[in-house]
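Wed. Picked up where I left off yesterday with Aspartate carbamoyltransferase. The coffee machine is broken again, so keeping this brief.
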Amino acid sequence: MGLKSKDLLGLRDLTTEEIQYILNTAKTMKVILSSKNKKTPHLQGKSIITLFYENSTRTRLSFELASKYMSASAANISVAASSVAKGETLIDTGKTIDMMGADVIIIRHSMSGAPHLLARNVTASVINAGDGMNEHPTRRFLICLQLLRKKEVLRG
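Structure written out below (tokens, as returned):
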């Protein structure tokens, strides 16, 4: 099983089975992270770009480390030092990254809906790392994992 969509934009878009699949995968990855050899071949040959329009040390670093642990090539775009500072739009930035062959773009943006806009305009998979007051699905998964430590089943 996997995800039906190429993108992870929010939990509302996922089925119960997809959420369970992600949580089970996260449990497996936690075991790997607890071992001496944190490197896995899961994303070998894939390129991942973190595109953060907002500052976020923990979230950005978490994605970068996870990418490297799973053997992906990872790069971070500092928006303040990019063409965005000269007025480049989100769609233009996304298309440029897409043309460079990125497999995954992880975006954090203060504007609600920005990851959805990006996903509609690129072929790369888009992961929402937080979009304003809308959603932060990866943080919600962390909360679910914490709850699963206390309970065996999550419902609702």
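Quick read: The mean pLDDT is 89.
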